[in-house]
Amino acid sequence: MDAELNMKYAHIVGWGSFWPDKILTNDDIANIVDTSDDWIFARTGIRERRIAGEGETTATLAFEAAARALVVAGLHPSQLDMIIVATSTPEYIFPSTASRVQDYLGAARAGAFDLSAACSGFVYALNMAAQAIATGSIRNAVVIGSETMSRVLDWEDRGTCILFGDGAGAVVLRGSSIPGGVMASELRSDGSGGDLLRLPAVYHNPVPALGPEYLGNGHKHNTIAMDGRQVFRFATRVLYQSILNVLKKADLNIDDVALFVPHQANVRIIQHVAKKLKVPMEKFYLNVERAGNTSAASIPMALCDAIEDGRLRPDDNVVFIGFGGGLTWAASVVKWDVTPPEVTRLDREWKRTRYIVARGRSKVRRWGRRMEAYLTGSPTPDARLRDAEKEKKLPPS
Ligand code: UT7
Question: Ligand 1 mean position to 290 CA, how many Å?
Answer without folding.
Answer: 19
